[in-house]
Design a protein that fits this description.
It contains eight helices and seven strands; from the N terminus they run βαβαβαβαβαβαααβ. By secondary structure, it is an alpha/beta fold.
């Protein structure tokens, strides 16, 4: 299938590692002009070199703290200046800390909001003028979590603000349709990333169990019996954020191996 991404300008937030890097790699494989962004220049440079080696396409790398409005403005501007416009925006950010309701004060809630929801609002706001002028219309993909369909225990900050991202996308799908901009949310379940490894380790310590026990139990709860790979997740995200997708908008796609049982 031709995804129509050759020479398209693609911006992927939080893409020096994990799901963001996997998505950027898949876009580069499809011939897109990719901008990768994160807070850590050393990690960015390593990701840039890895993507270039694997695909022959060298991404443009820019520093970005998604909690900082000025960073977002300058990062999007840099991508537009480098590649002559913007066709695809992928919003993404590291997850907020785990914990239940009583673990967090107002400052924690504000921080979670700025990281997980307000960052998406700001990225989309900054990208919109450029997506509106894209020759074939624009695409927006929000990386969220399967918690948009089923809350995950001990991740209340993520549960609340990821649901907000999903609601934002559904609302914007109506507003942006006349501009030929499609927006969707891709919701990972258990994918083998550093974030999942960190959560597993914290849970093992909290429950006085071994890391292996935590991982075995988690994988046993997945109908496919294993965690997904970043590459598997990225392929789904890139299709939705491609120009082979011409009629799917306002949707949330679970990439979770069948974990969420709800309809």
């Amino acid at each position: 299938m031709n995804l129509g991404l050759e020479n398209k300008s693609v911006f992927v937030a939080a893409s020096s590692k994990g799901l963001g890097k996997a998505i950027a790699l898949e876009y580069a494989r499809e011939g897109a002009n990719v901008t990768i962004a994160s807070r850590d220049m050393a990690q960015l440079e390593a990701a840039r070199d890895e993507i270039a080696s694997a695909t022959g396409h060298v991404p443009h790398a820019v520093l970005l703290d998604v909690r900082n409005a000025g960073d977002i403005q300058s990062a999007i501007r840099s991508a537009v200046d480098r590649h002559g416009g913007l066709d695809v925006l992928v919003t993404n950010a590291g997850g907020p800390p785990q914990g239940g309701f009583e673990a967090f004060d107002d400052a924690d809630w504000q921080s979670g909001f700025e990281l997980t929801l307000l960052s998406v609002v700001r990225l989309i706001r900054e990208a919109l003028p450029h997506l509106r002028s894209a020759a074939d219309g624009g695409r927006i993909v929000n990386v969220a979590s399967m918690s948009v369909k089923e809350p995950i225990p001990n991740l209340i900050l993520s549960n609340v603000f990821r649901a907000g991202v999903n609601s934002l996308a559904k609302s914007l799908s109506l507003e942006l349709a006349p501009d030929r901009i499609l927006i969707n949310t891709v919701a990972p379940g258990r994918i083998g990333t550093d974030r999942i490894a960190q959560l597993d380790s914290q849970r093992a310590e909290r429950e006085n169990r071994t890391l292996e026990q935590i991982q075995q139990a988690a994988n046993a709860a997945i109908p496919l019996g294993r965690a997904g790979t970043p590459e598997e997740f990225a392929k789904a995200a890139v299709f939705l954020g491609s120009f082979a997708n011409t009629y799917v908008t306002g949707q949330s796609l679970l990439v979770d191996g069948g974990t969420v049982r709800g309809l």
